[in-house]
């Protein structure tokens, strides 16, 4: 791997929508999307490889604890809390640009509240809670403005 590819060679002051963002689909899966294991470590791996947008499929779990897995399949389930803690630990090791959590929400209101509570508790000040009027994408903040921030897209 060419070390020059790790450096930023462009203006990072434009609105976020002006950029292609390295994204991961079914991030939690270690293999195929029907039978494989869901693993929190997969988030550590892709974040360190340069992904800035990761997918988190949230479902109601036992004992009021939301879980992450590929719905309607035999993939294993991992607690949402473990996923959030892994993302928090690895989000900014390799680069400071924002991380977007693409949440696929299948949870009851009660477990959605639990997810929000965990995100606030685990991400703390890194969680970007500013609301954006998406009517005008030119008003979106830039990657430079959002360094060290975790954004939530639902």
Automatic annotation (TrEMBL):
One of its GO terms (molecular function) is phosphatidylinositol-4,5-bisphosphate phospholipase C activity. SUPFAM superfamilies: PLC-like phosphodiesterases (SSF51695). It catalyses: a 1,2-diacyl-sn-glycero-3-phospho-(1D-myo-inositol-4,5-bisphosphate) + H2O = 1D-myo-inositol 1,4,5-trisphosphate + a 1,2-diacyl-sn-glycerol + H(+). Its EC number is 3.1.4.11. GO terms for biological process: lipid catabolic process; phosphatidylinositol metabolic process; phosphatidylinositol-mediated signaling; release of sequestered calcium ion into cytosol. Keywords: Hydrolase, Lipid degradation, Lipid metabolism. It is an enzyme of class 3 (hydrolase). Coiled coil: none annotated. One of its GO terms (cellular component) is cytoplasm. Residues 10-154 form the Phosphatidylinositol-specific phospholipase C X domain. Pfam families: PI-PLC-X (PF00388). This is Phosphoinositide phospholipase C. It comes from Regulus satrapa (Golden-crowned kinglet). The lineage of its organism: Eukaryota, Metazoa, Chordata, Craniata, Vertebrata. The gene is Plch1.
